Amino acid sequence: MRSSADKRARLASFLAALAFFLSAVEYMLPRPVPFMRLGLANLPILLAVDLLPFGGFIILVVVKVLGMSLLTGSLFSYIALFSLAGTMASALVMRGLRLAAGRKLSYLGLCVAGAMASNLAQVALARVFVFGPSARYMLPAFLGLGLVSGTLLGLFAQLFARGSRWLAMVGEDAHGS
Amino acid sequence: MRGAADRPGPVRRFAARFGATRLDAAFIAAAAAAFIASAMLIYGGPSSAYAVVSTDSGEWVFPLAEDREFVVEGALGLVVIRIEGGAVYFRESPCKNQLCVGAAPVSSPGQWSACLPSGVFIRVEGGAAEEDEFDALVR
Q1: pLDDT above 60: residue A70
Q2: Cα B59 to Cα B14, B55, B120, distances in angstroms
Q3: Residue A134 sits in which domain range?
Q4: Cβ separation B31–A139 shorter than 8 A
Q5: Is B110 within 8 Å of A130 when comparing Cβ atoms?
Q6: B61–A contact, CB cutoff 8 A
Q7: Is A168 an 8 Å CB contact of chain B?
Q8: Which of A105, A113, B43, B60 has CB 3.0 to 4.6 Å from B110, enough for a Cys bridge?
Q9: What is the dihedral sign for C-alpha B35, B36, B37, B43?
Q10: Mean pLDDT confidence for B106-134
């Protein structure tokens, strides 16, 4: 029988691989607006809020950003920094809210809050490093996109979570160990 | 047997289907309120008249009423911007992904277009009174 640490390591690896795969899917999808992303690759991070210990969770975030940056060829540009700031802000907000609110908040609320945090962090970086005060003109568009993409992904995550026997099983493992 | 009055409304049925909670609804409402408030604050200016082009090396203001093409220095090299038919857009950019060149022209106040790799930002601002007073300004 496998140890719980072994199971957690395998689960973290699986979620990282899933994030990498979903990054590739997201990269292939056409974007109606240049900055618009659905954030599919954030789904494993959303699920990991309840499945991985904090250290493994942060490693997953970094691996997701590295994977996505490798795929898009932006690893050694400041676009990777935007991606890291957005994903990290989103992940920490989702993790913090789960700690604070527990099950009163479903994946839907977590995902909306995470998407808004991610987009706010990216607008803040754009203001500091690229566009200066003009960056405020990006804010409503980014908040609107965050609301739409967060809601869609959150609804999908809820449907998935309610129907997935795999998630129920790994969830039991994560909380039982 | 339950009467029609006892049947849950569409919002409750939707929430039950997805397992959404009251706190979820509160977060979505707060996010929507933040979006609407920011849009009203930032885009709720007077009617459109000119394009403001920001780069690392400065800020230029061009009236949208007059067609013209101009070049600014971006982080990667020269960026060609065109004003045509009251709208402004990126015509050429040395950036790799060319998202800025593919973006639609912008013409209304509050609209913007940006080339992230080049660090060039175009926004449309209002002020019909200023429209006829200048050919171009450097800020």
Answers
A1: yes
A2: 49, 6, 10
A3: 4-176
A4: no
A5: no
A6: no
A7: no
A8: B43
A9: positive
A10: 78
Domain count, chain A: 1
Token representation of residue B60: 């230029």
In this prediction, residue B50 has a pLDDT band, given cuts at 50, 70 and 90, of: confident
A84 touches chain B (CB under 8 A): no
Classify domain B48-138 by CATH architecture: Sandwich (2.60)
Q: What is the pTM of this model?
A: 0.70
Tell me the domain boundaries of chain B: 4-43, 48-138
ipTM entry: 0.84
In chain A, which residue's Cα lies nearest the Cα of B34?
A143
Cβ contacts of A109 on chain B, cutoff 8 Å: 20-21, 23-24, 26-28
DSSP assignment of chain A equals ---HHHHHHHHHHHHHHHHHHHHHHHHHS--SSTT----GGGHHHHHHHHHS-HHHHHHHHHHHHHHHHHHHT-TTSHHHHHHHHHHHHHHHHHHHHHHHHGGGS-HHHHHHHHHHHHHHHHHHHIIIIIIGGGGGGGHHHHHHHHHHHHHHHHHHHHHHHHH-HHHHHHHHHHHH-
Q: Which CATH number fits the domain that encloses residue A165?
A: 1.10.1760.20
Q: Which of A46, A104, A137 to mutate to test the interface with B (most CBs of B within 10 A)?
A: A137
Closest Cα of chain A to B75: distance in Å? 10
